[in-house]
């Protein structure tokens, strides 16, 4: 599991999950973000996410992370993972929004 080293993550043991005594290659929050992103990317073919819902879904992760960093608050791995899944959902919607408008602008303004 430690072969995935190309992603920037602090990988602190106290903020990571363990499986059979081995630490996950990402912290709990990053694990949630990746799980949420990879679950919701295929669902975007069927369900579109409004940009405001996408940004709203990212907000709990930002609030959790920033309050930990600046207010000396310690979060739980379950909360980190849960808010990470929401952020993955929001990032998937944000990616879809950016891709849609990139293609739209390219086809309507550059090709015409």
Q: Describe the largest sheet.
A: 2 strands, antiparallel
Radius of gyration using CA atoms only: 17 Å
**Terminal CA distance:** 49 Å
- Could you name the ranges where pLDDT drops below 50 across 5 or more consecutive residues? none
* SS class: mainly alpha
Helical percent range? 55-70%
Strand fraction equals: 5-15%
Secondary-structure element string? EEHHH
Number of helices: 3
With strands numbered from the N-terminus, the spatial order across the biggest sheet is 1-2
Number of strands: 2
Rough shape? elongated
What's the rounded overall pLDDT mean? 89
Please provide a brief summary of the model.
This is DUF2085 domain-containing protein. It comes from Flavobacterium ginsengiterrae. By secondary structure, this protein is mainly alpha-helical.
Structure, explained:
With 112 residues, the chain is mostly helical. The protein contains 3 helices and 2 strands, in the order E-E-H-H-H. It has a two-stranded antiparallel ribbon with strand order 1-2. Helix 2 (51-70) crosses helix 3. The longest helix is centred in the C-terminal third of the chain and has 34 residues, at 77-110. It is elongated. It starts with 15 loop residues before the first strand and ends with a helix. The model has no long low-confidence stretch (mean pLDDT 89).
């Amino acid at each position: 599991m430690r072969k995935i080293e190309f992603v920037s993550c602090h990988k602190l043991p106290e903020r990571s999950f363990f499986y059979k005594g081995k630490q996950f290659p990402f912290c709990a929050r990053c694990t949630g973000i990746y799980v949420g992103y990879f679950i919701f990317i295929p669902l975007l073919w069927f369900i579109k996410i409004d940009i405001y819902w996408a940004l709203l879904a990212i907000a709990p992760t930002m609030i959790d992370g920033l309050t930990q960093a600046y207010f000396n608050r310690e979060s739980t791995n379950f909360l980190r993972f849960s808010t990470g899944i929401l952020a993955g959902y929001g990032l998937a919607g944000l990616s879809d929004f950016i891709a849609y408008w990139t293609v739209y602008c390219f086809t309507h303004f550059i090709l015409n």
